[in-house]
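Name: Metallo-beta-lactamase domain-containing protein
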Amino acid sequence: MNESLTITMLPANEGDCLLITYGADTNKKHILIDGGLASTYQKAIKPYLATHGIQELELLVVTHVDRDHIEGVLSLLKDDSLDIKVNNIWFNGWYHLIGTTPAPPAPVEPVTALDPDEPAPVFGAVMGEELSPLIQQKGWAWNQQFGGGAVELSAVPNNVINFGEVQLTLLSPSRKKLEEMIPVWGKECAEAGMIPGVPIIPTPMARVSLSEAEKMQINVDALAAEKTKGDHSKANGCSIAFMLEYQGKRFLLSGDAHVDLLEAELKRLGASKAKPLRVDLFKIPHHGSQNNLSKTLLELLDCKHYLISTNGNHFQHPDDAAIAKIVKFGTAESTLHFNYKTRFNRHWEKAEWQETYHYRIEFPAEGEDGYKSLSF
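Structure predicted for Metallo-beta-lactamase domain-containing protein:
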């Protein structure tokens, strides 16, 4: 009986949508992490589930409320034609931020639809508010392993949760990170007249975009040496991140989690530069943002496969400084896997750099933009 562990990045534009499949050929089980945009659901998730005969999810994880992670999940819950059973869902809503379990279901108010192909705003609390009653109406087991409370560190013994043969070790968020989100969410409530509220959509900061020729001449060592500024997004700080272990294989699935918390939790698990923790795969946080990756974090891991999910929309991820850190401080002879080939990442195919820094690059096969699968 063949048993395998597979991760598939689905086309989520600038967002995340990851499907984990594990188990024997005759009894495959599935975990879906995030849903990308509404277009991700219509163009990828729904047809992928149908094509592969997937009618049951062991676990659905909504890591946090940014639109490029949550909107496709909203589409899934609203699709009455979809015949799927979800055994467990992890998602932290407003009540989880303030340390209680959700209130009884309330009527779902219509929300103005966003163009599914428009660049995603940074924050989607209104979508979090919309998702909560939908989960309740479905009757799905919501944060059941945490007693209905928040998915957070220290909520269960040793932060370990077992789903049959799969073990998940929670790495984020902490109670502190969740509580830091409360005033942000509350401010939006007050300004929008909702309780708790519609988000303010910030205007993305202008970014300097190098030409193709300039990108080919960047100094990898200098970029790798740049100090991580840190991610100050309260929503990203609330990201659910965890280690998944199955049959001796280990995936680090980081959402958009903050680097300080990931470092602290890996060290708590015994990882160090002298004795890095072996992982088979590391899904790089926040689509390769330089603010969510550090030399320290990379040196805590012995990893041969790094995944970056983004097409570069909106914030032009991945940042060259982040990729430089991976190739400089990550594990030698490793492979970087992208689910899109774009002007923001294709220069890292440069043969001279691959030879010097001992790494490989893999992009999707022709005609399969957005899709990238790895099996172990």
